[in-house]
Amino acid sequence: MTEADESSRSTYRHHASERTVPTGMLARIERDPLHEQIFSDPSVSNGVVLDFPDILKLADAGIAAKEYLSPEIPLASTTTVHDSFLHDLHLTQEENAVRTVEPDWHFAFDVPTYRDEDMASAQREQNIDNYRKGVSCLYERLKGTRTTIVPLLKAVYPEEIRDSFEGIKHICDGVIAVYVGQFFGPHVGNRHKEMERWIWQIDAICNPSGIILIGLLSPRYLAALPGSVIAAIGKRYWMRKTEFRTASLTTTRRRCRVLQNRVQKRLSTGYTQQTMSQFTASEVHADG
Questions:
Q1: Residues 6+ apart with CB under 8 A from 111
Q2: Helix crossing, 91-101 with 52-60: angle to 10°?
Q3: H/E element, 140
Q4: Least confident residue range of 1-15, 137-151, 190-204, 224-238
Q5: Which domain holds residue 59?
Q6: Is 106 helix (H, G, I), strand (E, B) or coil?
Q7: Would the pTM of this model clear 0.90, i.e. be above it?
Q8: Is there a domain that residue 286 lies in?
Q9: pLDDT band for position 12 (cuts 50, 70, 90)
Q10: How many helical (H) and strand (E) elements, i.e. helices and strands, does the chain have?
């Protein structure tokens, strides 16, 4: 067994009280035959993540998580997708799809939250309030299923971060998911320093049991984040680093294992928590 294989097995899941949540690297994938072939091997990632439109397709086809790639491979579903899709996604529709597919984890009921320059504060506050109510409702309705609801932290400014966390921390024993994809991309460039400040701010204000990052797999950037970050989910990074379209399946999987091991090492060496006073002066936005 390689070092990367051993890492994938030893960090398979993190126990927060009696709930299980993902740790280490999870690959965000598409319903692409090549994606699915790569990650049908449980040694290359600690799990896979599908966007909710793909979860709806699995539900329509009657395919459960354990039947998707392999019973050995954890599946997570995420609603961190385009606002236009979220606008038409109803809570009951989300609930029914999760009941049918039964992913191991569900990053639930995302809503748009933008800084004041891009969204009226009253609208953002309403969205955050709607989120707290919606995710709590899903949590109650899906109790007794095999799916663990992992709440997203929806907030922009420090007082919102505090209030948002207080409203959701009971759902997964203080473990939260944070979307950071808005800090990277062709339209916004690379704003990793801004992202770092924002994650440290969340860590200082909330003191969470764990943070699961959605939209970041770079080991170098992960190394600068607090020790409360326990898992990283991304797609563009693994696709670029493996060159999977031109590399052989064996080479692609080997590169995934190397990346998985590097991600785990960086998550294991995060810095200790900072005091809240170090961050309240800066207001870093999250528009996931």
A1: 86, 127, 128, 130, 131, 134, 154
A2: 60
A3: helix 121-141
A4: 1-15
A5: 3-278
A6: strand
A7: no
A8: no
A9: very low
A10: 12, 12
CA distance 104 to 122: 35
- Look at residue 179 and give its three-state secondary structure: strand
Q: Does residue 286 have a pLDDT over 50? A: no
- Where residue 185 sits, what CATH number does that domain have? 3.20.20.105
Our count of domains for the chain comes to 1
The partner residues of 48 in beta bridges, in order of sequence, read 27, 75
Give per-residue pLDDT as tens, 105-125.
999 999 989 888 888 999 999
Asked if the structure places residue 199 within a domain, the reply is: yes
Is the Cβ–Cβ distance between 35 and 63 less than 8 Å?
Answer: no
Q: Which of 98-112, 184-198, 251-265 has the lowest mean pLDDT?
A: 184-198
Compute CA distances 198 → 3, 161, 186, 242, 250, whole Å.
32, 10, 20, 29, 38
